[in-house]
Specification:
By secondary structure, this protein is mainly α. The protein contains 20 helices and two strands. It has one domain: Growth Hormone, Chain: A, CATH 1.20.1250.
Length: 471
Amino acid sequence: MTTQAELRHLSDAAARHVLSEHGTNTGRRTGWLMISTILIEAWDLYAISFLLLFVQDDLHPSSSMLGLASGAVQAGALIGAVCGGWFADRFGRRKVFITTMSLFVVLALAQAFVSNMWELVLVRFLLGLPLGSDISTGYTYIMETMPKGKREVMGNRWQGMFGLGEIAAIAVITTMYLSGMDHSLLWRVGLGIGALPALILLIGRLDVPDTALWLIQRGKFKQAKAVATKMFADNLEMLPDEDFVMERPRTRDFLAGIWKDRTRRRASIFAWISNAMQGAEFAAFGFYLPFILVLTGVSGIGATNFITGAIYILATISGFVGPAITPKLGHRGIARWGYGTAFVSLLLAAAFLQVHWTALVPFAAAGLMWGHYWAASNGMTIASMVAPSRYKATASGFGYVFVKLASFVSIFFFPILFDHLGVPLATVIVSLLSLTGYLAATYILPEVYGYVEQEDKEGEGASTPLAGEAH
């Protein structure tokens, strides 16, 4: 009889083999389907930033309630990321992403029918649960269905996809505004319409199977071989053509598996810091940019949407340029250039606002977005990539918690902060977040481009970047 130790050794060998594969068009299609989730998240998270003025005029919330409504989805996503990652590791990737996307469709539409601010807060909190869960599951799919190097580039595209979602939100909302739509109806349609792309994405995902890596780790070898043949053109000959019952990995061993290896530990710590810094960095100044431009007299509502749209077009270009040059600069280079640019741009924005050089504020904001989209590109990629194979979804969810927690705190408190301190000083405080990210990239992050894990004899995991592929 095959022992559990022998099964674990066999599954770990097969997992290493899968992670070193070259992939197929099917695997790349799956990667694009998963990264497209970001479009849905971007629409919901940031469409409201262009609709806040209309919500304020219609429901008359206090500044704290306005911040709570904006940040509620982030709080829900925080819980969803943790639970979704755990569920995906325990019950399978496919079950989780089908369930979460179905919930997203229903809850996104429900936003259009709320009658007061507390209902809006509640619905957006519930909406965050599937949103956070789907991101953690999607990143796991990318890391488990695409080859090394390619999966990193795809994972780093999440900021570019955010930009596309934000541009779409700006275009649709501006079109509705210029059409003369009643403002109390406009914000409801603007939020509820996010259900449509979510439904399209759900339909596109229906034929996506569980990943070969998860099936291997659960002893479902027959199905794993079939999926690996489809995704990697490899039938995993080292595995027997029968299934086995394997002991489930203990979630409490997740952090221990990361902590015992120096490269994995330092890379994960950086990912957690970076996720928190970039989440707070954008959620403060970037999220409220349309609000800031109007309140500080830089532009009116219509002009603000066009200015913001132009900034996001530039940011989207940055979001795709960053991943493309990651093989040359490495993860450390992308992070340092990104956070450094964001830090300088925030200081310039604060200075321009202080001396009332309002015409230059959009240029500083454009510099911030260019840097932010590089800085934010690889935190989730690194957290997911370096995690032990049996904990990848848990690691993705855990890493995303730092994004959502920082975003929630910043979105909730930034309106209060600039009410009491003024926008210029509040912006200087935000710049310290970018500086922290730069220092973390410089002194904590080891170069992990081209990383493939190597499980140790105890099965807890130890790993190093591939020689010649780290920069």
